[in-house]
What we know:
This protein has 1 helix and 26 strands. By secondary structure, it is mainly β. Strands 1, 3, 4, 6, 11 and 13 form a 6-stranded antiparallel sheet that branches. Strands 14, 16, 17, 19, 24 and 26 form a 6-stranded antiparallel sheet that branches.
Amino acid sequence: MKKLLVLLAALSLALPLSARAQEDQAQAAKEQSGDKPKEFVVYTDKGARDNHFIPSGWMGDTGDIKMNDQATENPHNGTTSIQFNYTAKKSQGQGWAGVYWQSSANNWGAKKTGFDLTGMNKLTFWARGAKGGEVIAKVMVGGLKGTYPDTVIAEAGPIELTDTWKEYSINLAGKDLTYVNGGFGWTTNADLNPEGAVFYIDDIRFAADSSLKPEGKKSEGMPFYIYSDASSARNHFIPSGYMGDYSDIKYDGRSKEDPYLGDTCIKITYNNKATQGARWAGFYWQNPANNWGTVDAGYDLSKATKLTFWARGANGGERIEEFKIGGIMGEYSDSDSAAIGPVILNKEWTQYSIDLKGKDMSYILGGFCWSANLDSNPEGATFYLDEIKFE
């Protein structure tokens, strides 16, 4: 009887092992034949078995984001989509917010849980706005650093949504996808959505498309705006790189006080209290926010021959020591820099220009910058900017 029991136990172990071996052989044969998966799902429906990655990497003004990953109101496909409500209240004082889908919850690169997505060459997703006109500043794949960094970084945007579902994609052809922790992400900001934004995302997936070709380094077309209007999808760079007595600066990117063109302009107030003891202050418009050369995200602005902008002082006579483009140095540095100054502002709108002829504009992280000091503005300075663009 004991021999019979031992035999039965051995068979019960051998059968699953045999089945597993057959599965492994079948998988190996499938890979050898070149029959590789044609998609890798990030999200199709709440609780779907083939979902991967977790929308846990909240960034910027995290208090401004609400997420419902089982919204039933008019999903693109299936029974649910993901709803995001961005309030633009600047809860953490950043002026922007976003979410990364990570391979394990809150994994910013500390854990080796990423996926090998070799064979995929694009990410697609569907999105719509609650009203239409909502703007996502950018969407991205990869780019997370840490002990186990992503092997890829790819971005697209800005995207102005309509109130109907539309498909968007990120070209990954030619990219190294051997380790992907940051499967998908989006960011937006208060300048693009001054009243906030409610939008929906659905059917996020990696795919293999044999017809897709790698994108070359894109040289941006002109004009290339830094600031057109507060909610314009044409805006690029983020006013985030505060310097010197940064607490002495107040920025309003949607001032309605006599804009030069459109509905809004930028109002900057410098109170010269020397709060940090530097006796000067200023800030950069950067891509992305707070990028001092640590993120590979420069624009190729080789077609630009000048940067123009309009400016005026609240009283006239305000002195700006320097208006500048480029000059950020780091792991990823601006390819060049150019500046004008000092500039004594008029009370009336006046156009200024920074000559870029002969400059290497192939990689620009620091799109625009200003600085002023206490000695030249003993009473402080309030000034306005509008229509900042490369031409």
